[in-house]
# Entry
Amino acid sequence: MSSATRILGIETSCDETAAAVVENGTQIVSRAVASQAELHAEFGGVFPEVASRVHIETIYPIVDGVLAQAHVGLEAIDAIAVTRGPGLAGSLVVGMNMAKGLALASGLPLLGINHLEGHIYSIWLAEKDTEPTFPLLALVVSGGHTELVLMTDHLAYQRLGGTLDDAAGEAFDKVARLLGLGYPGGPAIQSAAQGGNPEAFTFPRAWLEGSWDFSFSGLKTAVLREVRKMEPTLKAGVEAPRPGLPISDLAASFQAAVIDVLVGKTLAAAKQLGAADILIAGGVSANQSLRDSMQENPDYPVHVPPLSLCTDNAAMIAAVGHRRFMVGQRDALDMDVLPTWPLAE
Ligand code: KG4
Ligand code: ZN
# Structure
């Protein structure tokens, strides 16, 4: 066996049960993700009790599977990294208990990892040659978060702002539901927007001048208002809109409004704070239009994860685990999950 450092990562913060073995913080040896999206589709969002129960059923085969696939047992692992928060309490607990059980049985160190930090470190799994340069402006956009963070060095963060109401991904999910496009909403809106006119509807952009915060709930309401004008009796989010509604134009115009604000504020923050590079991560960073608009800027190199690492996975948790293991982090076996853990104050 080589002298590589191997971390077992475990992630169960929302509706994906995931595990991965990562070498030296950058090399994915094996990974597995079991998504519950289909189960939650009928609720139009994640149903926490269902999520937790399914994690319990899935976590053992997923962890066993990645160890088998990596052709290693726990004796070849150096530490166990698990998502400690933020996320759904009942879901986090399942991964945490699995990790604690394995750590107790094997004597391996246990590390509790911040899920948002995991999304950021998905970049280091993908880019081994062109590492981002600090200071790095990071936009983490997921189903639960829209965070703008200045990363001054590895593991060092200064939080600039975040959403005051709906997260960017949440806005995609809610508008998709309203338009009868299903869950998860991001990919559904993206494909519905193809061929739509992004200028067909002028939806509001909440710039919130003078702060690095975001707000997307007004935009969601504006889409609802537009739909109501065309279909006054629609039970929004319960019934699918009638055929004939300009779904593609609505989706494209909504998507353009979200992306304008995300890109505009990120570039403005990069300029004001003297960032060298920009990074986007989290489920919404899978959005092609967001990736294209961000990368079109002439001033900053933009780092985006490959599509397979944008949404929740455990390789990103292991990647952070590796960094933290190397600087000596070791957590107590009685640590609690932290469902509202901020990345930085
Ligand atoms: O990071 P993630 O997998 O889970 C959380 O940590 O929340 O992000 C999931 C979110 C969902 O809201 C989903 O609709 C959104 O990411 N998403 C997208 C796309 N793919 C996933 N949003 C816009 N465009 C996409 N292509
Ligand atoms: Zn996530």
Notes: The CA atoms of residues 98 and 220 lie 38 Å apart. The longest helix spans residues 247-273. Residues 115, 119, 142, 282-283, 312 surround zinc ion (ligand 2) (CB under 6 Å). The chain is about 40% helix and 20% strand.
